[in-house]
Known about the structure:
This protein has a four-stranded antiparallel beta sheet with strand order 6-5-8-9, with no helix packed on it. It has a three-stranded antiparallel beta sheet with strand order 3-4-7, with no helix packed on it. The relative contact order is 0.18. It is built from one helix and nine strands. The protein has one helix at about 10-35; strands spanning about 5, 5-10, 50, 60-70, 70-80, 85-95, 95-105, 110-120, 120-130. The protein folds into two domains: about 5-40; about 45-130, Sandwich (Immunoglobulin-like). The radius of gyration is 28 Å and the shape is elongated. Helix content is about 20%, strand content about 45%.
Amino acid sequence: MMILMGFSISKVVIGVLFVSLLLLLAYILYKKVLAFVGKGVPVNTDYCVLYSLEQDPVAGEMEIYFTTKEPKIVTIEILNEDMNLCELVVEKDFKEGGHIIRFDSTKLPNGTYFYGLRTENQKTVKKISIKNL
């Protein structure tokens, strides 16, 4: 039998197969642990994504952009620093996809505000500054 640096070919093959089996079992165990830990993770389709404004501070018309992966009733609102409602921008049923909502910031005095997106299972807010001339 041929000896390669003190090992026979059959021992090398058995060693490679053993290491491959261990790696396969480790991978399966890793996937099982990930599945167990991720059981309570919410489904992404249940939530909208509210994006930051391109311009801050805002002057004049501002464009609020959000996306939804399924049709939903969405409320967009402007809140003051105390998180009290200043202006209801829109409340309606939106189809899936991206949506731009325009709001005239000259309706409000200059200052710090929050714009928010609300659905039946979500509330997201982002901070903005309004600085009209």
